[in-house]
Amino acid sequence: METGRTLGSITEKVIEIRGLNKSFGSLQVLKDVDLDLYKGENLVVLGKSGSGKSVLIKIIVGLLSPDSGTVIVQGKHVDKITYKDLLALRLKVGFLFQNGALYDSMTVRENLEFPLVRNRKTLTHNEINHAVEEVLDAVGLIETINQMPSELSGGQRKRVGIARTLILQPEIMLYDEPTAGLDPITAIDINRLINDVRTRFHTSSIVITHDLTCGKQVGDRIAMLLDGRFERQGSFEEVFNTSDKRVKPFYDYNFIQ
């Protein structure tokens, strides 16, 4: 099913995946997967645990290699470019891990400074400080700038993780289970933040989740991974308007009548 976000009369793909296969031993996780991400779109990838959602985004950033198929990100074939070019491409792709992946021995400020110091070596101290304060303000946590990660709540850690990802000004955001482990109110706040990030920073995003509330609130389009393939794509209503016995239990678990 070929759908996408149309901007005016132009539809631009920032990620294009064709015929992607990935196995671990005798277990085939991804089977001839086709998927596109369009410029300015929030694409939600749904699927149960172990369905290959996280494997997919690790392949997109070159952390895993596909067995076969084509993965094109920003016009670059991820599995064919040099390691140097892959590192450059990764700077355009922000990856938010489930736990935020903050360094516990660093303050919030130091966590945010770290990727800048490592990847933007010509920045002045004032420019770094401005960038840190800008992204912290964007996620509503400027007051935590001198705190340690251990002093933050789970929701705050997620927000700081998003800020650290944004500080390199990526064009694509990959969110891996952004609401996992959060209470419902905090999860809604994170969903709003994902939408705010798209608007403020003009990102295109893939949101990996099994949380249907997250999917419904942030997804311009839903792609559901079933038995290793994206067999259902479209709006939230289009994906779940089905008698497919693999889909209904997923909906019932999230929205108990």
Mind explaining what this structure looks like?
Helix content is 36%, strand content 25%. The longest helix is centred in the C-terminal third of the chain and has 18 residues, at 184-201. Helix 3 (108-119) packs parallel to helix 5 (154-166), helix 4 (125-138) packs across helix 5 and helix 6 (184-201) runs parallel beside helix 7. Residues 1-10 have low confidence and may be disordered. With 257 residues, the protein is of the alpha/beta class. The chain contains nine helices and ten strands. The chain has a six-stranded mixed β-sheet with strand order 6-7-8-3-9-10, with helices on both faces. The radius of gyration is 18 Å and the shape is globular. It has one domain (13-254): 3-Layer(aba) Sandwich (Rossmann fold).
